[in-house]
Amino acid sequence: MDRTAESRVVVGVDGSTASLAALRRAVLEAAVRGAVLVPLFAGQPSDRTACRLLDSALRSAVGGWPSELVIRPTVTAGPPGPALVAAVAGPDDLLVLGASGHRHWHPHGDRAVRHCRGHSPCPVLTVAGQP
Q1: Does the chain have fewer CB atoms within 10 Å around its N or its C terminus?
Q2: Pair 81, 119: CB distance under 8 Å
């Protein structure tokens, strides 16, 4: 299937409280929009570690893998900002990011949000995590 033919909700997942809040919101948005949910982990861990993290995040955020959604978990190497923007197919998608509100707690978080807001062809929704 052509990537541009489906609406996507791409969400950055790193296991933080903020990313779990973003994942909960992304699940809701994907359900409302009838979109494919794309939980994305960017970084340097092994595929096995990243897959465990994505699985754990879905269980923590929404109690497991929502059966009513098409979910395409994605693991990619490299910095989160460019990886998240690359996962977006077009202007009808939605990019959901967690924000802790504490820049010094997550050195890549603020940079990733700024990158996504500056480069994403679709709306970027930032969700505050629990302190």
Answers
A1: N
A2: yes
Burial classification of residue 58, based on how many CB atoms lie within 10 Å of its CB (0-12 exposed, 13-18 middle, 19 or more buried): buried
Q: What is the pLDDT of residues 73-124, one digit of tens each?
A: 998 888 999 999 999 999 999 999 998 665 444 444 578 888 999 999 999 9
Angle at which helices 17-33 and 47-62 cross, to 10°: 70
Burial call 85-124: b when 16+ CB within 10 Å, e when fewer: bebbbeeebbbbbbbbeeeeebeebeebbebbeeebebeb
Q: Greater confidence, 85 or 131?
A: 85
**Prediction pTM value:** 0.87
Per-residue tokens: 22:
């973003």
Mean pLDDT across the chain, nearest whole number? 86
Q: How many CB atoms lie within 10 A of CB 63?
A: 8
Distance, CA of 7 to CA of 104 (rounded, Å) = 34
4 C-beta neighbours (distance < 10 Å), count: 11
